[in-house]
Design goal:
13 strands; 2 domains; seven-stranded antiparallel β-sheet; 20% strand; alpha+beta; globular; 35% helix; four-stranded parallel β-sheet
């Protein structure tokens, strides 16, 4: 079996190198995935890139063994890492689990998985300025805030109010001035979580024939970041985020006296087939237009109890982020983005998709000929905070 190792110093750039190394191969056979005891630094987009890599590798080749670079006594600490519970849950029915000495630890993991599920469901505090909810469609139990036996929880007010409390208690604790700003954006954050999590309930659980996947995960992740402007410019020098971080709005309105930027990362993801396969109904429809349709009102394939309220999600998100945020979508062969500081959003008629501006993260003008196909959809949002007066 082929071993693929994720090191503790993994970064978006290093994950890009791993994609190039493994995704283009026709047959790697069964995979042994080796996970670190921790990731040394989480940067914007890292969790999305890591989950995308693992989900795609598993879908393309099949991960048969997950090896944790720890001793069994250190297992509990792994649940402080945001990548751990989703990956374990995804592979639960299909892989074996061992520690660094190749000792089987699935029975121990079962106890810890159940314990963490209860902690997550009770909305308890997690280590660090972060919080996440992971829905596991192939295992028993519901994340009660977002789902129940009837489907998605369609109470936007409840979800918004709970996430306001989560932001206040768990995430925006680094600087009290962020708490005053959250009063003005709490509805924005709640709407983002509600709309995008609702979409995964439709898009992420079934294939294009609406048949349930044998294994699927969906999730919501929020993390507060503090980075120096110098570090951000260095880290994202070869990406579209460089222009965003160097914009006058960020430099003049958001950097504090130490040259630091405070920002919130929001990730909504699923392990499904992605936007293109899910919505590509017309043979002459361009892939990028499919993604654009998902950003415009009244796009739905649902026959669920939410149909009457679907189809306003991503269009609404663009309005919320307008003039202040950054949106990145990773799905199928594409990574697209919208810098809402550089390019303000205006409502678009679904029949005039050419007027909706999306840009190619990789600078390839949406030429996907040589791009590997990814499994899942990953919507990442960067929401910067204003500096304190």
């Amino acid at each position: 079996m082929v071993e693929i190792k994720i090191n503790r110093n993994i970064s978006p750039r290093k994950l890009s190198d791993l994609r190039k190394l493994y995704f283009g191969q026709s047959d790697l056979g069964d995979i042994v995935l080796i996970l670190p005891s921790e990731i040394s630094r989480y940067s914007f987009g890292l969790l999305a890139d890591l989950l995308s890599f693992v989900i795609t590798i598993n879908n393309k080749y099949s991960i048969k063994k997950l090896k944790l670079n720890i001793l069994r006594d250190d297992l509990i600490a792994l649940y402080d890492q945001e990548y751990f519970y989703p990956i374990i849950s995804l592979l639960w029915n299909t892989a074996s689990f061992v520690d660094k000495q190749d000792t089987d630890i699935k029975s121990l993991l079962r106890e810890e998985q159940n314990s963490f599920f209860k902690k997550m469901n009770s909305l308890s505090r997690m280590k660090g300025n972060k919080f996440f909810l992971t829905m596991v469609d192939h295992l028993p139990g519901y994340v009660r805030l977002l789902e129940n036996s009837n489907g998605f929880n369609d109470d936007e007010d409840q979800i918004s109010n709970i996430f306001e409390l989560i932001l206040k208690k768990y995430i925006l604790t680094f600087n009290k001035n962020n708490l005053s700003e959250i009063a003005g954006i709490k509805n924005d954050i709640g709407a983002i979580v509600y709309e995008l999590a609702k979409n995964t309930d439709e898009w992420g659980k079934t294939d294009k024939e609406n048949i349930n996947f044998s294994s699927s995960i969906r999730g919501v992740y929020l993390r507060f970041h503090v980075n120096s402007h110098e570090k951000l410019v260095e880290e994202y020098a070869s990406t579209p985020l460089l222009a965003f971080f160097n914009s006058s709005e960020i430099i003049n309105s958001c950097l504090n006296e130490l040259g630091q930027l405070y920002y919130l990362e929001i990730l909504i993801y699923d392990s499904g087939i992605g936007f293109i396969d899910k919505f590509h109904s017309a043979p002459n429809f361009k892939d990028i237009d499919v993604i654009k349709r998902c950003l415009v009102k009244n796009q739905t394939t649902s026959t669920s109890n939410l149909k009457s309220k679907k189809g306003i999600g991503l269009d609404r998100i663009l309005n919320i982020l307008n003039k202040k945020g950054f949106l990145r979508i990773l799905t199928d062969k594409y990574c697209v983005y919208r810098d809402l500081i550089k390019c303000e959003y205006k409502p678009i008629d679904i029949e005039k998709l050419d007027d909706l501006i999306l840009e190619d993260w990789n600078g390839l003008n949406f030429d996907s000929m040589d791009s590997p196909k990814l499994q899942g959809s990953f919507i990442s949002i960067l929401y910067p905070f204003k500096k304190s007066n």
